[in-house]
Structure formats: structure tokens, C-alpha cells
Request: fold
Amino acid sequence: MKTKKVGHTGKYGARYGKKIRQRLLKIGAQKKHRCPNCLKRRVKRVSAGIWECDACGLKFAGKAYRPHEK
Reply:
């Protein structure tokens, strides 16, 4: 179930604690990230720390939830 308040973290119900679910909600609400090569906002997370640009196909390493510090 999804609601305005909990968004996609509603699937966890009352489990894991409020703070952790709020952090997950904040991470999930982020927009697409900018590619360091072509500068387009087409970067997706492949797995933890691995990112790939849909536009130019560049695969690079970064942080777990963000590709690089801003």
C-alpha cells in the first residue's frame, strides 16, 4: 500500500523503525543523477556502488546511494 506520507516505504509496514524508513524514502525520492562523461541526467544505479549512464553507456563506480559527492 502506498500513501502520500510513507510513499514506497509503505511496503515495510511498522517494521525496521521510523528513522530507517524515512531515510529510504529520502533516497528513493532523488531524481536521476548527472553523468560525469556526457553530463546528461540519465545515470541509474546498477548495484551497490556501480552506476551506468543510459545515454552514453558509461559504467563507473561511486557511492552506494549517490554516484558522487556534489
